[in-house]
Design a protein that fits this description.
Largest sheet: 6 strands, mixed
Radius of gyration: 40 Å
Mean pLDDT: 82
Number of helices: 38
Distance between the termini: 122 Å
Number of strands: 6
Helix content: 55-70%
Length: 799
């Protein structure tokens, strides 16, 4: 052991190691600086440590060998000849071999080679790192700019001016508290309080209050874009906190905040002040996230505000799942946060559908605290309530909002939403329903949820260029998950050629869950002649997934659109609709071309025992009129009205449930429509339009099986008006037949719409409608009344 210690001393290994470790520390500091300044890859630092560990072994070995501590000659000492004649025999030979090997090692492990090798290793490391940066698209080695998204907009909270007993602590204390609350809120970046105080103390003498320009200079020196200048005043037991926010570049005030209350509630006051301050900055697009104005923020919790702003950013990107989670957090912290509740309701609506229980609960909470909202947001909230309640008043309310706030994208988006869900009942055409969305996109093209309905509408109109433009904008601004990520499948599926459709349906099979097939495709995209092949592919996919009912309904719709009436009728009477009210609803469309066929299967549906609900019973009365069964129709009507009257009496006696009472009274009106329809079939149309108009706005738009009654109603009304010479009004009714996710209404209406446009002198449009119908119905019987009608219209146009 002593011999080893002597050898180490002789090699001065302790001094060498101490020097090496010190040099290594310096090298690592240099690597750290270069890595930051040159934007080198993150693996540079750990590789440097590994090289230094290898170098440690090499340096230690060099010191030992060159000093002769391992038994060989020291550097520069001549080696003695060693031969077999020396004393020791075998031992001497071993010694000679070792001495020879150490001599070779001494030539290899020299100080020059060790130091040169270390320098070379680090040069190679930085060369490889530079190549890696270049190949990764980093733009070469050099300082990288930090984007606004990465760093956020800087905001410096300066020491408060204080007045009152025991208020001195708040001069600097507010810097810490406000900075902590504001940091990260809506993209804001609060400058570290230590940095702010260092700059402040470097320029402001203790006890002095600088002028505004000097304060702004201090804020700008910290890297801030905005300066928060505040005061804290105590009068008796009351504390008043105020802030003024300045743009340090222009020197102009951008807003203010204030909170006043009992001194023992000062932390609550700080939270309230933080929210108002954040709102003032963000209302100027500070942080890259613009609020309408600060009074929108009906919360006093900075944590709830931060969660809301996170949710709002995700909502704008159509990341509805992420937005829902963030809004839930905001509401969990502050259940009275009206705006967060409203956005939670909308996010869930996009994720699931209108009428969702959680969405309804959130909307109810928002309404309970709507008095905290400014007038504009309160008006928008009421429109949301009307939409959620499926109240036809949403259209008029949304039109008024768009008129009151013509420069507000959200007002136009709400009008577009109202048209999407109720526009057909308001006799709005598909082209007119698209216009509010176009206005909203012009005002704020980065708001992703705007694009969903326009993609669907442009597709139904056959405008592929516009549809793909909307899709490109959606993909540019959206998160790309969930519903937003499916439209790049559904659009090519609907509008592409055969190869594109097959590729799209393969992606549906791999990527799209069951629910999105229904909400995104079935309900979102309309059934047109262009969508037939896509509908048939999707029907097969639904069947493969075990959803035979939806598959049959979609295929039946496609066959109607092709004019394959026998195939469509067979599907209606297929096993998927046994004992299903949907069978009755599907048959209502046959009335559009003169009534259902006199088929034994149809006549069997007139059995009184099948009258199980108002919609089914109404369909029975219409089928009875088509088949000339006037007595049976009246029998069904009397029975149903008797049952409804009993229910009304029971509810009136109980004094409860006004909503159900109203619904029952509305159902009575539909049987007035059934009698009016029978009159129309007999050629007696005098009082029919009035009976039809009384119920046109009664249907809930979210329930398309029920809403199918209204489509039939508007078709009948259009035909009566055309017969009475009211061509322009008839055209409006025909053009309103676009909103149903099921059925061939967009195709079946074309001969009548052609007749209306021809009567209005718009011959080019009339010709297009006739031709499009005949192309779609090329497989239909040539003697079908609608086929003959379209051909007759073309003959008139041809003279």
């Amino acid at each position: 052991m002593m011999d080893l210690f002597d050898r180490l001393k002789r090699a001065r290994i302790f001094q060498v190691l101490a020097f090496y470790l010190g040099a290594s520390w310096v090298i690592l500091q240099v690597v750290d600086i270069l890595q930051d300044s040159l934007a080198l890859p993150p693996w540079v630092a750990p590789v440097s440590v590994i090289l230094l560990m290898i170098g440690l072994v090499i340096i230690a070995a060099t010191a030992m060998i060159q000093s002769g501590a391992l038994g060989g000659p020291a550097q520069g000492t001549p080696q003695e000849s060693v031969g077999e004649s020396t004393i020791g025999g075998t031992a001497d030979r071993a010694e000679a071999t070792l001495s020879s090997e150490l001599g070779s090692a001494a030539d290899l492990f020299t100080w020059k080679r060790s130091i040169t090798g270390g320098i070379g290793a680090f040069v190679a490391l930085f060369v490889v790192a530079g190549v890696a940066v270049s190949l990764s698209g980093g733009g070469g080695i050099g300082p990288q700019e930090i984007s606004a998204d990465e760093a956020g907009v800087g905001l410096a909270v300066l020491p408060f001016a204080v007045n009152g007993p025991d208020m001195d602590v708040w001069a600097e204390g507010m810097v810490d508290l406000l900075a902590d609350n504001l940091d990260g809120t809506g993209g804001l970046r609060a400058i570290d309080p230590r940095t702010v105080m260092s700059r402040w103390r470097g320029q402001v003498r203790e006890g002095e209050t600088p002028e505004l320009p000097e304060m702004l200079d201090i804020a700008e020196a910290t890297g801030a874009r905005y300066a928060v200048i505040g005061s804290a005043v105590s009068i008796g037991n009351t504390v008043r906190l105020t802030t003024d926010i300045y743009d340090v570049l222009s020197g102009e005030s951008v807003g203010s905040g204030g909170a006043e209350g009992a001194s023992e509630d000062v932390m609550t006051l700080v939270d309230r002040l933080s929210v108002e301050t954040a709102g003032a900055v963000l209302s100027t697009d500070g942080g890259g996230f613009a609020l309408r104005h600060s009074t929108t923020l009906s919360t006093q919790s900075p944590v709830a505000l931060r969660a809301y702003l996170e949710g709002e950013a995700m909502y704008r990107q159509a990341d509805f799942a992420g937005a829902t989670d963030a809004f839930r957090r905001a509401v969990a912290i502050d259940s009275a946060f009206a705006l967060a509740n409203l956005r939670l309701s909308r996010s869930i609506g996009w994720l699931r559908n209108i009428g969702d229980e959680e969405a309804q609960e959130a909307l109810t909470r928002a309404l309970a605290f709507s008095d905290r909202l400014p007038p504009r947001e309160g008006e928008f909230l009421r429109i949301e309530q009307l939409l959620e309640d499926q109240n036809f008043g949403a259209v008029a309310a949304a039109r008024a909002a768009a008129q009151n706030y013509p420069d507000d994208a959200e007002a136009w988006e709400l009008l577009g939403e109202a048209y999407s869900h109720q526009g057909d009942l308001a006799l709005v055409s598909l082209e007119e329903a698209l216009e509010p969305f176009r206005r909203a996109i012009e005002i704020d093209p980065t708001f992703s949820p705007i694009y969903f309905h326009p993609i669907e509408m442009a597709t139904a109109l056959g405008d592929s260029e516009q549809a793909y433009q909307f899709l490109a904008s959606l993909e540019e601004h959206s998160f790309g998950e969930g519903r937003a990520g499916r439209y790049d499948i559904f659009l090519p599926l609907t509008m592409g050629d055969e190869a594109t459709r097959l590729d799209a349906i393969a992606r549906v099979r791999d990527d799209v869950p069951d629910r999105e097939l229904i909400t995104g495709y079935f309900y979102g995209f309309r059934r047109t002649a262009r969508s037939v092949e896509a509908d048939l592919l999707m029907a097969r996919e639904l069947s493969r997934r075990g959803n035979a009912r939806s598959a049959a309904a979609l295929e039946q719709s496609a066959r109607l659109t092709q004019g394959r009436l026998d195939d469509a009728l067979d599907l209606v009477f297929g096993p998927e609709f046994d004992d299903d009210p949907l069978r009755f609803v599907l048959l209502l469309q046959w009335t559009a071309w003169g009534g259902v066929p006199d088929d034994p299967r149809v006549r069997a549906l007139l059995d009184m025992e099948r009258c199980g609900d108002p919609v089914r019973c109404f369909a029975q009365t219409i089928l009875a009129a088509d088949l000339g069964e006037g007595a049976r129709q009246e029998e069904i009507i009397e029975r149903v009205l008797g049952l409804i009257e009993e229910q009304i009496n029971e509810l009136e006696e109980s004094g409860e449930d006004d909503a159900n009472l109203e619904s029952l009274r509305e159902q009575v009106l539909w049987f007035d429509v059934a009698r009016a329809y029978a009159e129309m079939r007999r050629g007696e149309t005098t009082g029919v339009p009035r009976a039809f108009e009384r119920v046109r706005r009664l249907e809930p738009y979210a329930n398309w099986p029920i809403n199918a009654r209204n489509h039939a109603l508007r078709y009948w009304t259009a035909e009566i008006m055309l017969e009475q010479g009211q061509a322009e009004q008839a055209a409006r009714y025909f053009e309103s037949l676009w909103a149903s996710p099921h059925g061939a209404w967009l195709t079946v209406r074309l001969p009548g719409l052609g007749d209306a446009k021809r009567a209005m002198g718009r011959d080019a449009e009339a010709r297009e409608h006739y031709t499009d119908f005949l192309d779609a119905w090329s497989a239909a019987p040539q003697d079908h009344p609608l086929v003959m009608r379209a051909r007759a219209g073309l003959r008139v146009l041809d003279g």
